[in-house]
Design brief:
about 70% helix, mainly alpha
Length: about 80
């Protein structure tokens, strides 16, 4: 008994369920959403790192100024560059 010839997963023309345009369109939309989700996740993760790096650099700068390694003028110029 041929199940596919009797309508189990096929239409009269012998096409399966995956051959229609809506299935392909849905698959393309889902792939686009997955890619956009990955891009947003990467941007969110990298955004947090850049903020942490700026505060880290500012802490180092404050420490150098406190130790007397740089002058007030140098401190202000470097701080301006960091921000």
């Amino acid at each position: 008994m041929d199940y596919f010839a009797h309508g189990y997963g096929m239409d009269e023309m012998g096409h399966g369920y995956g051959d229609n345009a809506w299935g392909w369109l849905f698959m393309i939309v889902m792939m686009i959403l997955v890619v956009l989700g990955i891009i947003l996740l990467v941007r969110f993760a990298s955004g947090n790192q850049s903020t942490a790096n700026k505060s880290n650099a500012l802490d180092v700068l404050k420490h150098r100024y406190a130790k007397g390694e740089i002058t007030k003028k140098q401190f202000d110029e470097i701080k301006k560059d960091i921000k």
